[in-house]
Amino acid sequence: SKANLKGKQTIPSSNKLASDAKFPVRPFNLRKSLTNVSPLFATPVSLGMLAIGVAEGNYRVYIKQGILYVEQTANYFGHTDPGNLSWGEVVTNYGPCSDQGRSGGDIAIAEKLCLQRAVSALPTHLVDLHTAGIDPNLDVEALLNTADLYNQASPIHSRRLPQALAIARQGGLSGVEAVAWARTASFYLNSNRELDLEQGENKASGLIGICARENLSITEWQCVHRDQLRRAKAISDVLKKYIQIAQLEERA
User: Fold this and answer.
1) pLDDT averaged over every residue in the chain
2) Residue 77 and residue 83 in contact, taking contact as beta carbons nearer than 8 Å
3) 64 occurs within a structural domain
């Protein structure tokens, strides 16, 4: 059954938590929150876009002699989207976010469109995270993963991610493991497009198609989870590097 795909972790059912969870009420001001987090997507090399770019495989970020370096990979300048191939569509991505060909190959336009699209979704991400009991002003990792999932998949999945992340954490998961579980769970939707691990269908057709082409003998959950874990780890690594540099600058 789909419920068994959740693995050995003891996680409460999504339906139960959705109705029973008593989230703490925190002061929330959308305008102030937008002011706080918008700088994450101010430039192609701001933290938010770096997180998405590294998760996509379009950036490499590293520290050398106390300096944070950003390197564009070959993917940045054009690569075929592997997910779209799952339904026979050939799309060439450009820029930090893999732009689904919207830029027509103009890198400057690709960078601009990536930033515009990421910023346009921030109000929704902030409200959804707050509604799920996650403070988007403090939990940068949750916000970055929500933004990355919005970039990767249909918007409905990033809408469901905050709820899934709250479920994962209440079920005892933490850190990257909670994020990867939640990102995977967000693809399981019922006919009402609600998060539903018991009766929902895995909607990650692009990822499932990749696993099929690679002849991997794994479940749909495992197929999606391996990709979401990779992306969650990539984002966590970028965030840790940023924090490391900030701490070095404070000591200087």
Assistant:
1) 90
2) no
3) no
- Name the residue range of residue 164's domain: 2-41+115-244
Tokens of 58: 């379009």
Residue 105 lies in a domain: no
Dump the DSSP string for the chain: -GGGGGTTS----HHHHHHH--PPP----HHHHHHHHGGGGSSTTSHHHHHHHHHHTSEEEEEETTEEEEEE-GGGG-EE-TTGGGGT---EE-TTTT-TTTTTT-HHHHHHHHHHHHHHHHHHHHHHHHHTT--TTT-HHHHHHHHHHHHHS-HHHHHHHHHHHHHHHHTT--HHHHHHHHHHHTTEE-TTS-B-TTT-EE--HHHHHHHHHTT----HHHHHHHHHHHHHHHHHHHHHHHHHHHHHHHH-
Residues 6+ apart with CB under 8 A from 47: 40, 140, 144, 238, 239, 242
Q: Mean pLDDT over residues 206-234, rounded? A: 96
- In percent, the amount of the chain with pLDDT more than 70 equals 89
Tell me, yes or no, whether 173 lies in a domain.
yes
Per-residue pLDDT band at 88 (split at 50, 70, 90)? confident
* pTM, to two decimals: 0.89
CB 221 within 8 A of CB 202: yes
Report phi then psi at 245, rounded to 5: -65, -40
Asked if residue 78 is part of any domain, the answer here is no
Q: How many domains does the chain have?
A: 1
Residue 17 corresponds to which amino acid? L
Tens-digit pLDDT profile for residues 159-212: 999 999 999 999 999 999 999 999 999 999 999 999 999 999 999 999 999 999
Report the pLDDT value the prediction gives residue 94, as an integer from 0 to 100.
93
